[in-house]
Amino acid sequence: MKPLTTKLVTLGIVGLFFSFSGIIMCFFWPHVFYKILSNELPLTPRSRIFEIWKDTNEIPMNMEFYFFNWTNPEELKIPGKKPNFIEVGPYTFKEKIEKVNIVFHPENNTVSFDQRKFWYFDPEKSNGKLSDKIVHLNVVAVSAAHKVRYWSFFMQNSLSFMLDKLSGIHIVKTVDELLFTGYEDPLITMGQMAVDDGEEIPPYDRFGWFYLRNGSTMFDGHYNMATGEDNLNNLGVMKNWNYKDTTSYYKTPCNVVEGSAGEFWPPNRDAKEITIWTADLCRPVTYEYTGTVMHKGILGYQYAIGEKTLGNSTKRHYPHDQAKYFERTTTTEDFFDAKHSTTESNENIDDPDTINMGQCYCNGECSPMGVINITACRYGAPGFVSLPHFYKADPILREQVTGMKPNETKHSFYITLEPNTGVPLDVAARFQINILVQPSLSVALFRDVPKIYFPIFWFNLKSGTTENLAWSLRQLLIVPSAGLYGSVILAIVGAIIVIIIAVAIYVRKGPKKLILARRKVGAFNGKKSEAVYMDTTITDDEHDRSSPSLQLKIQTRNS
Ligand SMILES: *[C@@H]1O[C@H](CO)[C@@H](O)[C@H](O)[C@H]1NC(C)=O
Ligand SMILES: *[C@@H]1O[C@H](CO)[C@@H](O)[C@H](O)[C@H]1NC(C)=O
Ligand SMILES: *[C@@H]1O[C@H](CO)[C@@H](O)[C@H](O)[C@H]1NC(C)=O
Ligand SMILES: *[C@@H]1O[C@H](CO)[C@@H](O)[C@H](O)[C@H]1NC(C)=O
Ligand SMILES: *[C@@H]1O[C@H](CO)[C@@H](O)[C@H](O)[C@H]1NC(C)=O
């Protein structure tokens, strides 16, 4: 073979190689990206995210409290009058979460930890002072009356007497007392003395919604969470809460500990739903996909609390392998059969694995759509959680009172995740705390009250990625498209080289024919074209690397 042809063939092979690697890369690049994620995403003591997770000080998190100032407590027992509320606030605190007692378990790829939260008042971002006075339902009295419902007549009477002497239906306290410092109430002391055997009682000597919570590990429970090291699909998934994979607060299978612990999600999110274990409610909460949004220049999937969580008869399909969580006395088939027969009427009974969640979340009575009963999770106090201003709730709830103005942008509870990596971009955690007030036969203070889900306060915990994290994320997200474009370009460049070589070899065999042909075409167009192929290596030094081995020049001149 002549040296020139050898060169051309070598080049041709290089071109083919480029093309093939481009095509192969096109197919394998997603795996390469996944490999990068497998290195970056799991939580280990060495991973970049570890320090931020351990102490969220760097992440901007603001907790805004809004209270409902009750303007007409004296009218509660007057028929036809509704409680009226004026929203006051926000009282804004910077929140910081610290993980403590962190123990990694490499044997089962989980990490155990406790968490404690700190709140720091931020007067600049607040609309009001901590010393502002709020007219507030007497929650201690309502809880006491609720608790003694099944006590003896004598006990109920003594409570009734005490309440008449000591309390009214409302109290006036400062924001600080209602939240963190708490206030004393003789009923609390009495309640602590008169506990039933074995009953869980709150460790409080004062009442305040966040009393003792600042800096304490006592409130969120003990977490055991998968780190995703073995399998990214497990990343951030709750395994055990308080050392168990079920709780005692709801009936099976609603008592299963499941969902994300709230900070990590496996990559490749779909446009359906996500579930988060929510310690404050002692249950998982489902967020449904609502659309895509841009946040800090990154496209995200937004998920919000909706009907699946707020409804009182949500159906859910359980895979058979989750049968381990069902009542021990029944097999899977028995369980489904049992549910099957109780949900006959109008429901879709084709699928025996689908159960009505209302049957396990309504412990006893069901609440209307939009309020979640957390009585069992709150030492028997009749607490109910909803979205602020009863947003997405049964209209009955806001018609019982005046002053509720539900609004999508202000009151929805949403989470935005970057779908490829599962990294949270933007979170607005918003819940309203309500207390169920109901008439009581034996406690005089509550004899003639209407049954009302009483709005007390709501909070808005906003957090999201820092600029730094967003920047890293944007770089990481370039990788898949860069890989794709890179491989396509490589394939095209390879193909062009191969074509040029093919043409060049052809030209070497019959260049005159080609030039002739071109001249003809040129004449035909009324233009004079001249294709000049200059193979510089023919005359140039073989080893002159600076000169291109092949130049293709087409000169076109007007005739
Ligand atoms: C919470 O505790 C921290 C540190 O102990 C303290 O600086 C902060 O003021 C406390 N916040 C409230 C609202 O009491
Ligand atoms: C709440 O209402 C009471 C009585 O109407 C009033 O004195 C108090 O200033 C109000 N609080 C705020 C923060 O506006
Ligand atoms: C993993 O192992 C640790 C230590 O033995 C244990 O505490 C934890 O509950 C285990 N988690 C799971 C999901 O098995
Ligand atoms: C709320 O839950 C408690 C305890 O689980 C139950 O006794 C009560 O009937 C429920 N109330 C409503 C209104 O759903
Ligand atoms: C469930 O919610 C709906 C809508 O709020 C309400 O009409 C219904 O009474 C509730 N179901 C039960 C069993 O309470």
Describe this structure in words.
The two termini are 41 Å apart. The relative contact order is 0.13. The strands form four sheets. Strands 1, 2, 3, 6, 7, 8, 9, 10, 13, 14, 15, 16 and 17 form a 13-stranded antiparallel sheet that branches. A two-stranded antiparallel sheet has the order 4-5. A two-stranded antiparallel sheet has the order 11-12. The model is unreliable at 336-349 and 526-559 (pLDDT under 50). The chain has helices spanning 3-40, 50-54, 139-147, 153-166, 175-181, 186-193, 307-310, 332-342, 358-361, 395-399, 408-411, 467-509, 511-524, 536-539; strands at residues 61-70, 85-105, 110-121, 133-137, 170-174, 222-226, 238-241, 273-278, 283-295, 298-305, 315-317, 354-356, 372-373, 383-386, 414-417, 424-437, 452-464, 527-534, 551-558. The chain has 559 residues and is α+β, with helices and mostly antiparallel strands. It is built from 14 helices and 19 strands. It folds into two domains: 60-312 and 367-465, no CATH class; 517-558, no CATH class. α1 (3-40) runs antiparallel to α12 and α12 crosses α13 (511-524). Bound molecules: 2-acetamido-2-deoxy-beta-D-glucopyranose (5 copies). One 2-acetamido-2-deoxy-beta-D-glucopyranose binds at residues 312, 366, 368-369, 394. Residues 547-559 have a biased composition (Polar residues). InterPro entries: CD36_fam. This is Protein croquemort.
Brief rundown of the structure:
With 559 residues, this protein is α+β, with helices and mostly antiparallel strands. Helices cover 30% and strands 26% of the residues. It has helices at 3-40, 50-54, 139-147, 153-166, 175-181, 186-193, 307-310, 332-342, 358-361, 395-399, 408-411, 467-509, 511-524, 536-539; strands spanning 61-70, 85-105, 110-121, 133-137, 170-174, 222-226, 238-241, 273-278, 283-295, 298-305, 315-317, 354-356, 372-373, 383-386, 414-417, 424-437, 452-464, 527-534, 551-558.
